[in-house]
Amino acid sequence: MGGGNVKESGMLRLGRILYTNVWPVYHYFDDSALSFPATTRTELPAVLNRLLLEGELDMSPVSSFAYGMATDRFLLLPDLSVSADGPVRSILCFSKKPFAEAVHGRIALTNTSATSVNLLKIVAEKAYGAKPEYVTCEPNLEEMLEHADVALLIGDHAIRADWDNAGYTVTDLGAEWKNWTGKSMTFAVWTVSKAAAGRNPERIGELADALADSKRRSLADVRPVAEKAQAELGGELAYWQGYFENLRYDLTRERLEGLDLYFRYAREMGLLPQEAHIEIWTDNTRIRVNE
Predict the structure, then answer these.
(1) Is 13 within 8 Å of 195 (Cβ atoms)?
(2) Among 68, 193, 197, which residue's Cα sits nearest to residue 122?
(3) 95 — phi, psi (to 5°)?
(4) How far is CA 137 from CA 107, 150, 151, 178, 247, in A?
(5) C-beta neighbour count of 216 within 10 angstroms
(6) In this entry, which stretches build a coiled coil (predicted)?
(7) Residue 177: Cβ-neighbour burial (10 angstroms; 0-12, 13-18, 19+)
(8) Which domains does the chain possess?
């Protein structure tokens, strides 16, 4: 069914990030239980970013940077994010030398998420004063480090590489950001197009409530989510329980302050073409949190 026909039928087109880090938000979520027709498409962050920007999705979690590229067209759903107040455990740099030294050389970037790529550029250039050469690669650690001094992996690729670590120095970008700025880092946000929010405020409200309810139930007891992750990806149950308990899934003022700082640095470095003005969707009322 084409995009136009989907719109005409009243179907709400939802996205979902492929990585495990969003699982607590979705573990108890069922799009078929909504009172309106909805379809969910699961993709890598980079694909969801493109689909949302091209108008092929009405609501999706996306990398924070993708939202920053188009804050004039999108709103954030309240109380939903993938954030870390320190180590994130799944956005990792691997290097043969200490990170502070290796970051001055060539950096191999993953091709799967803009937020982490630009966070690494901000940390390398602003925190360490480096002027590295960047190359973009498929997420294969050994091949990346054949041609570079630092390799960035995210999500499940990073987790597996960390488990299999063959003696590389591992640097957690969430920890780097926290140590440098004192703020938390928000890696993904749930966005809804202003057009969809204007057309269907009741549906967006129901959807936001359903996602928030799934998140609350998951975080009250992460064991079922951790067991699913262990069954599908391996590893120890205790690892996955710790992984999900470590992440932050809220969107508090503290998260928004960290996100705003990230956007400001990205703008200063020319990574964002314009200023990003964060707006939160809430029952037809738009709250602007930074001017």
Answers:
(1) no
(2) 68
(3) -150, 155
(4) 10, 12, 9, 26, 27
(5) 14
(6) none
(7) buried
(8) 3-84+185-288 (3.40.190.10), 91-181 (3.40.190.10)
Do 246 and 89 form a contact (C-beta atoms < 8 A)?
A: yes
Tokens for 99? 């990170």
CA distance 59 to 135: 31
Structure tokens belonging to residue 134: 């960047």
> Closest Cα to residue 11, out of 42, 32, 25?
32
Residue 117 identity (one-letter amino acid): V
The candidate with the shortest Cα–Cα distance to 156, out of 67, 92, 250, is 92
Type of residue numbered 90: S
Q: Residues 262, 67: contact at Cβ < 8 Å? A: no
